[in-house]
Design goal:
By secondary structure, the protein is an alpha+beta fold. It has two helices and four strands.
């Protein structure tokens, strides 16, 4: 199942530019700070590389945001 998180194109482009041989896949998954049902686990090759999704409403309210943006959290090692 693929997560409905908007356009993950920037994350895919970044990871593919770092290593085009590793496939990038985003699957539905819940993560803290992201809206329920609107986030996904980013897999880069066989390894989890982070999360992407719509920012949770309560965080948006604290920051005074009118709309919930899409954000990504990536775990990259040197």
């Amino acid at each position: 199942m693929t997560a409905d998180v908007g356009s993950p194109g920037a994350v895919e482009a970044l990871l593919e530019s770092l290593d085009p041989a590793r496939a990038v896949r985003i699957t539905a998954n819940s993560a803290a700070g992201f809206a329920q049902g609107a986030s996904g686990l980013i897999q880069w090759g066989q390894w989890p590389a982070g999360y992407i999704g719509r920012v949770e409403r309560r965080i948006c309210d604290k920051l005074g945001l009118r709309e919930a943006p899409i954000a990504a959290e990536l775990y990259l090692e040197p």
